[in-house]
Amino acid sequence: MGHPVLKTPAKPVDSPVSPEIQRLIGDMVATMIDANGAGLAAPQVHVPLQLVIFQAPDTRSTGPEDGEERFDLTAPLTVLMNPVIEILGDEIEPGWEGCLSVPGMRGYVSRPNHIRYSGLNEKGEAFSREARGFHARVVQHECDHLDGILYPQRMDDLSELVFESEMRYHEENAEAAE
Ligand code: NI
User: Fold this and answer.
1) Which of 36, 43, 41 minimizes the C-alpha distance to 52?
2) What does pTM read for this prediction?
3) What is the residue range of 75's domain?
4) In principle, which of 4, 32, 64, 154 could form an S-S bond with 40, CB 3.0–4.6 Å?
5) Residues with Cβ within 5 Å of ion ligand 1?
6) Which DSSP category does 169 fall into?
7) How far is the CA of 88 from the centre of ligand 1 (A)?
8) Has 142 been annotated as catalytic?
9) Residue 65 maps to which CATH number?
10) How far is the C-alpha of 157 from the C-alpha of 106, rounded, in Å?
């Protein structure tokens, strides 16, 4: 947080199957897995392109264990370039979010619960998918990075921006979010 690339709108990917983009995707996947993240956007690795990856189930199937949340890695790994998000319905749901660019913190963020996203996959093929719950949250969080937006900017109440080490005081909310 604070690096200019995180505040800059990203540019569309022109050549999805070029060696440079394929290498970037590989690096991002390794980084996301290494950091135990549910998603990652190219600006977070200082590349100002419209490319995000994520691996997010509809619900958080695993809660915090030994103080560390583990994500369900059986959810499909998705590469999404030049994304467009359409909000479906009017249901808004709050939930806790973290971000590899805001290390050590969590925030309680309200977002639409049901969306459709479309864009290009890693082969440069157009696709479209509906998402709900945690899946929808992760996609919106990652795509916000492409508009230069970090999750604290989406928060209604900054008193709910907390250190991970203090999450034990917020278990009631954490359970409601799952
Ligand atoms: Ni993030």
Assistant:
1) 41
2) 0.89
3) 4-177
4) 32
5) 99
6) G
7) 23
8) yes
9) 3.90.45.10
10) 13
